[in-house]
Each structure stands twice: as C-alpha cells, then as structure tokens.
Amino acid sequence: MKALVVESSSTMRSVLRRILLVRGFEVSEAGDGRMALDVLHEMGTADLVVVDVALHEPESVEFITRLRHEAARHTEIVILAEAELGTRELQRALIAGADNYLVKPFTTRQIDEKLAQAGFHGHLDLASDRTGHSCRY
After folding, report:
1. How many other CB atoms are there within 10 angstroms of residue 42's CB atom?
2. Of 63-72, 82-91, 117-126, which gets the smallest average pLDDT?
3. Labelling 81: which of 15, 16, 114, 122 has CA 20 to 30 A away?
4. SS3 85
5. Are the C-beta atoms of residues 47 and 120 closer than 8 Å to each other?
6. Residue 42 belongs to what H/E stretch?
C-alpha cells in the first residue's frame, strides 16, 4: 500500500510517516501541493493521500480537485484539519473529493479508525504504543 502525506509541518509529516509505516504503508512526503503533485507523478499511484486542509501552492481544495481528476478514483483522501478551523474549509474539501477527515490533535486510534473506514486492514491492530495507551499527536 502506498501513501502520500502532504503537510507543511515537517514534524507532523514525520509523525504521520512513522504511524503509516508501522501499519504497512510505503510512505512518501511533500511539504506543499506543488511538490505533492510531482511526488504523485513519480509514485504512479497512491492508495492513501493525507492532506493538510491549510495547504498552500495550490490550496487544499484545488489540490484535492486536481488529485481527483488525475488520480484513480480508488485513492482515499483524508483531510487533516485544525480543531479551531471553521467547518467551511472542511466542507469545501469534502465537496472537492476528500473522503474523510481527521482533526488535530489526533490519536493513533483515530487514525486506525479512519483507515478501517477506508478499507485498509493491514496492520491496524497496532493502535497503541507499548504501554497499551493510544498515542496523541
């Protein structure tokens, strides 16, 4: 399974990369929409794309619209939204073609729930850290 994380924060990209790698994904990263489109062309296809709703160059809605036109329809798009963000941008992203959303801060359990909803069943039993508690990011 291939995933692309599109997030301006290198720290958040790193966190998501680790979480998805443990769950069996090959993960690529991009810091903005322009870079993400280039990475997608190199990848050929992605099963999962995680996009920051505050994305720039192009903005998230435009990026999702382009992704839906260029990528296969089976690509799952999950939006990362800030808790304080209004619902308007989130609704615009969903209308543009995003399949689901995840509000920051999030837990590994919440990521596993979104992956399960999307039909990814790989290593989803790894929802917690070694202490058995869900990690919050």
Report:
1. 7
2. 117-126
3. 122
4. coil
5. yes
6. helix 33-43
Q: What number is the average pLDDT over the span 78-92? A: 77
Predicted model pTM: 0.84
The SS3 assignment for 30 reads strand
User: What is the rounded CA–CA span in Å between residue 69 and residue 40?
Assistant: 13
Whole-angstrom CA distances from 109 to 52, 121, 127 are 19, 13, 5
Task: Say which amino acid occupies 84.
Answer: E
The residue to which tokens 């508690």 are assigned: 133
Domains of the chain: residue spans and CATH: 2-117 (3.40.50.2300)
Hey, what are 39's tokens? 């990475």
Q: What is the pLDDT of residues 99-130, one digit of tens each?
A: 898 988 899 999 999 999 988 875 454 444 44
The whole-angstrom separation of Cα 97 and Cα 91 is: 10
